[in-house]
Design a protein that fits this description.
It contains four helices and ten strands, in the order βββββαββαββαβα. By secondary structure, it is an alpha+beta fold. The strands form three sheets. Strands 3-2-1-6-10 form a five-stranded mixed sheet. β8 and β9 form a beta hairpin. The longest helix is centred in the middle third of the chain and has 15 residues. The two termini are 29 Å apart.
Length: 190
């Protein structure tokens, strides 16, 4: 990431585009610098698929320019019914081995042609199973490759440095973790 650590998070839906410029920090909490929301251009986006990158790029550029935002570092937040996710348990292994286990078992997690998907994971917890074995609880996400490429192409059209593409479910989970206590019962409504 860049020196300032500021990053734009961009969430595109069928109805709106939300851009938030933040400085993430575990110690100090995430600092919000700017927040924008505006309508998604008509016929440019559908359920996670960028249909017209030029239209969307133009709308984003117009809003950033109008608000004096020059940051080029971006994290796109992917929202789509075509993205599938599963919580899975794997045996406790070193973190550098987790990716290989996920890749080897991805076709068992998802009933799709896994070659057409980008698969990613995040570690949710380390748990002890019913048989006293140590396990890792993962969130495994699969998104269509063509969909993911569309976001990188949009970033390229805008001249952005794409830091990551996150799934809305994971983004929400990370926010909830920073806003709630492990010792309390919490309901989150989106």
């Amino acid at each position: 990431m860049a020196k300032s650590n500021k990053v734009l998070t961009i969430d595109i839906t069928n109805e709106s585009i939300t851009i938030v410029e933040v400085t993430p920090s575990v110690k100090k909490g995430t600092q919000v610098h700017n927040a924008l929301i505006f309508e998604t251009p008509e016929d440019s986006y559908e359920d996670g698929n960028i249909k017209d990158a030029a239209k969307i790029a133009s709308a984003i550029r117009e809003q950033l320019d109008a608000n004096g935002i020059t940051n080029k570092n971006v994290i796109f937040v992917l929202t789509s019914t075509k993205v599938v996710n599963r919580e899975v348990l794997i045996p406790e292994v070193k973190e550098n081995k987790v990716k290989g286990i996920v890749a080897a078992n991805a076709s068992e997690y998802f009933p799709v042609n896994i070659e057409d998907y980008v698969v990613s994971h995040s570690i949710l917890d380390h748990v002890v199973g019913d048989d006293k074995s140590k396990q890792i609880k993962l969130m495994v996400v699969a998104a269509p490759t063509t969909m993911v490429k569309g976001y990188y192409e949009l970033g390229s059209v805008l001249g952005f440095n794409v830091q990551a593409i996150d799934y809305v479910g994971n983004a929400t989970l990370q926010l909830i973790k920073t806003q709630t206590s492990a010792n309390s019962t919490t309901m989150v409504i989106q």
